[in-house]
Design a protein that fits this description.
Length: 121
Protein backbone atom coordinates (compact mmCIF):
# COMPACT_ATOMS: atom_id res chain seq x y z
CA UNK A 1 0.00 0.00 0.00
CA UNK A 2 2.88 2.34 0.77
CA UNK A 3 4.24 1.94 -2.75
CA UNK A 4 0.80 2.53 -4.25
CA UNK A 5 0.41 5.77 -2.30
CA UNK A 6 3.89 7.25 -2.56
CA UNK A 7 2.90 9.53 -5.47
CA UNK A 8 -0.44 10.54 -3.98
CA UNK A 9 0.81 13.41 -1.79
CA UNK A 10 -0.48 11.94 1.44
CA UNK A 11 0.98 11.37 4.86
CA UNK A 12 0.86 7.79 6.06
CA UNK A 13 0.77 6.66 9.66
CA UNK A 14 1.22 2.94 10.20
CA UNK A 15 0.12 0.66 13.01
CA UNK A 16 1.14 -2.98 13.32
CA UNK A 17 -1.71 -4.03 15.61
CA UNK A 18 -5.29 -3.06 16.26
CA UNK A 19 -4.35 -1.83 19.72
CA UNK A 20 -1.66 0.41 18.25
CA UNK A 21 -4.12 1.72 15.63
CA UNK A 22 -6.66 2.55 18.33
CA UNK A 23 -4.01 4.35 20.37
CA UNK A 24 -2.92 6.42 17.36
CA UNK A 25 -6.51 7.20 16.44
CA UNK A 26 -7.34 8.38 19.96
CA UNK A 27 -4.72 11.10 19.83
CA UNK A 28 -5.07 12.42 16.27
CA UNK A 29 -7.45 13.15 13.44
CA UNK A 30 -7.19 11.16 10.23
CA UNK A 31 -8.83 11.75 6.86
CA UNK A 32 -9.16 8.03 6.14
CA UNK A 33 -8.17 4.67 7.61
CA UNK A 34 -7.01 1.65 5.62
CA UNK A 35 -7.68 -1.29 7.93
CA UNK A 36 -6.23 -4.78 7.54
CA UNK A 37 -8.68 -7.49 8.53
CA UNK A 38 -5.96 -9.84 9.76
CA UNK A 39 -3.94 -8.00 12.42
CA UNK A 40 -2.38 -9.48 15.52
CA UNK A 41 -4.38 -8.99 18.69
CA UNK A 42 -7.53 -7.10 17.75
CA UNK A 43 -8.53 -7.96 14.20
CA UNK A 44 -9.69 -5.32 11.74
CA UNK A 45 -13.38 -5.68 12.60
CA UNK A 46 -12.75 -5.42 16.35
CA UNK A 47 -10.54 -2.41 15.79
CA UNK A 48 -13.14 -0.76 13.56
CA UNK A 49 -15.85 -1.25 16.20
CA UNK A 50 -13.53 0.29 18.81
CA UNK A 51 -12.74 3.26 16.54
CA UNK A 52 -16.44 3.85 15.89
CA UNK A 53 -17.17 3.67 19.63
CA UNK A 54 -14.40 6.22 20.29
CA UNK A 55 -15.84 8.55 17.64
CA UNK A 56 -19.29 8.36 19.23
CA UNK A 57 -17.96 8.88 22.76
CA UNK A 58 -15.88 11.90 21.79
CA UNK A 59 -18.31 13.41 19.28
CA UNK A 60 -15.90 13.05 16.37
CA UNK A 61 -17.12 12.97 12.79
CA UNK A 62 -16.88 9.41 11.42
CA UNK A 63 -13.63 8.76 9.57
CA UNK A 64 -13.94 6.69 6.39
CA UNK A 65 -12.57 3.19 7.02
CA UNK A 66 -11.72 0.87 4.13
CA UNK A 67 -11.10 -2.76 5.04
CA UNK A 68 -8.34 -4.59 3.17
CA UNK A 69 -8.56 -8.36 3.23
CA UNK A 70 -7.68 -11.56 1.41
CA UNK A 71 -11.27 -12.74 2.03
CA UNK A 72 -13.33 -12.11 -1.10
CA UNK A 73 -16.59 -13.74 -0.02
CA UNK A 74 -19.64 -11.53 0.47
CA UNK A 75 -20.10 -12.65 4.09
CA UNK A 76 -16.73 -11.08 4.95
CA UNK A 77 -17.74 -7.82 3.31
CA UNK A 78 -21.01 -7.86 5.26
CA UNK A 79 -19.12 -8.55 8.50
CA UNK A 80 -16.87 -5.56 7.79
CA UNK A 81 -19.81 -3.28 6.99
CA UNK A 82 -21.57 -4.36 10.20
CA UNK A 83 -18.41 -3.49 12.13
CA UNK A 84 -18.59 0.04 10.69
CA UNK A 85 -16.40 -0.04 7.58
CA UNK A 86 -17.31 2.23 4.70
CA UNK A 87 -15.40 0.32 2.05
CA UNK A 88 -14.07 -3.15 1.36
CA UNK A 89 -11.22 -4.20 -0.94
CA UNK A 90 -10.14 -7.80 -1.33
CA UNK A 91 -6.58 -8.69 -2.21
CA UNK A 92 -4.90 -8.67 -4.61
CA UNK A 93 -5.64 -4.95 -4.73
CA UNK A 94 -4.74 -3.00 -7.85
CA UNK A 95 -3.31 0.51 -7.50
CA UNK A 96 -6.04 2.10 -9.63
CA UNK A 97 -8.69 0.34 -7.58
CA UNK A 98 -7.19 1.62 -4.31
CA UNK A 99 -6.81 5.19 -5.57
CA UNK A 100 -10.38 5.21 -6.88
CA UNK A 101 -11.72 4.02 -3.52
CA UNK A 102 -9.63 6.55 -1.59
CA UNK A 103 -10.82 9.44 -3.73
CA UNK A 104 -14.44 8.30 -3.55
CA UNK A 105 -14.45 8.06 0.24
CA UNK A 106 -12.49 11.28 0.77
CA UNK A 107 -14.85 13.16 -1.53
CA UNK A 108 -17.89 11.76 0.28
CA UNK A 109 -16.41 12.71 3.67
CA UNK A 110 -15.71 16.24 2.41
CA UNK A 111 -19.31 16.53 1.15
CA UNK A 112 -20.68 15.38 4.49
CA UNK A 113 -18.46 17.82 6.40
CA UNK A 114 -19.58 20.63 4.09
CA UNK A 115 -23.25 19.71 4.53
CA UNK A 116 -22.83 19.61 8.31
CA UNK A 117 -21.10 23.01 8.36
CA UNK A 118 -23.80 24.52 6.13
CA UNK A 119 -26.59 23.16 8.37
CA UNK A 120 -25.19 24.73 11.54
CA UNK A 121 -26.95 27.90 12.74
Amino acid sequence: MKLFLEDEHCTLTEAETGTEALSLFAGRTFDLVLMDMEMPGMDGCETTRALRRLERETGLRPTPIIMLTAHAFSEYEEKCRQAGCDGFLSKPIRKAQLITELHRHLLEAARQASDTARDRP
